[in-house]
Amino acid sequence: MIKRTWTAAVVVIAALLCGAPIAHARYPERLIRLIVPVPAGGLIDGVARVLQPALQEELGQTVIIDNRPGASGTIGTDAVAKAAPDGYTLLVVASSHSVAAATTPKLPYDAERDLAAVGMLVADPLLFVVSAGVRANTLGEFIALAKADPGKLTYATPGPASQSSLVTELFARRTGLKMLEIPYRGGAPAMLGLVAGDVQFGVFSMQLSAPQIESGKIRALATGGRERATLMPAIPTLAEAGITGMDATQWVGMLAPAQTPPDVIATLNGALARILDRPETKAKLATQGLSAARSTPEDFARLISAEIKQWGELAQKTRER
Asked: How confident is the model at residue 321 (pLDDT cuts 50, 70, 90)?
């Protein structure tokens, strides 16, 4: 017995000295932290709170939400970018993540190099909407109205470097429109400006727009997705309205630190797929005006890269104008 024990000890010590790999425990074996880089409430936090109990059930470990707001999401995102790549510190972000990477100089992390895609959670087309007083019932009618008086119509955005602002800029370039941007401090104030009629046009999330559309305070002219929105199927797409080759979608997804082992990423992605396929998950997201959407890590990474490239090029053209 003593001889066998000594032999086993020698094998382990030799493996350590030689740098040979030793089998590790199967992931996960301890608490998982979901970092949400914004305050409690709102889009990202709402999705994370739908996800958390189901992920805990799927993985068989405690999952906690850690809100780390500040610097427009940079503080929380940087914490994950610099965390150990072991699958125990994860990040939930929205499509504003790509916008920040494309438009914010000197971020403390590289959005593509320092973070790994795990999978998408939610994807909904942005809505192209007008205030109730605008005399346009279709996107074509609005374009004609704006072209008839260049520079007079105004549009609301949550800020000059927001996804809404960039999408509207791209839309204006595609259609040859000249409108005046009125930047607000956040989506809710921007929507209030549209509802009040202080501005005429805006590109907003389904979540923010749906209650105002249902109450008749604003009117939807088109959705930015390639297909009609599941939650609002009566609204035509941009392509159906005559604007082709343009996709405007708001998403929420999960990221991990770069160099997280592929098997850990696969375990997490599989858990997300099962959760997002659950009818109860879809129902909970629908109450927030959101649609579940899953993807492979590879597809999600390609989407983020494409968006960073697109918004970076558009921001550069805007600065040069």
From this structure: low
Same domain, 119 and 131: no
Residue 277 · residue 294 · CB < 8 Å = yes
Torsion sign (Cα): 11, 12, 17, 18:
positive
Q: Which of 15-24, 224-233, 288-297 has the lowest mean pLDDT?
A: 15-24
CATH (domain of 207): 3.40.190.10
Residue 159: both structure tokens together? 């800020």
Domain count of the chain? 2
C-alpha to C-alpha distance for 287 and 202, rounded to whole angstroms: 23
**Domain CATH code at residue 37:** 3.40.190.150
The pTM of the whole model exceeds 0.90:
no
Res 13: pLDDT: 43
CB atoms inside a 10 Å sphere around CB 90: 22
Q: Are residues 208 and 137 in the same domain?
A: yes
Answer whether 290's CB lies under 8 Å from 207's CB.
yes
Span 99-118, pLDDT tens digits: 999 999 899 999 999 999 99
What's the domain range around 54?
32-123+249-320
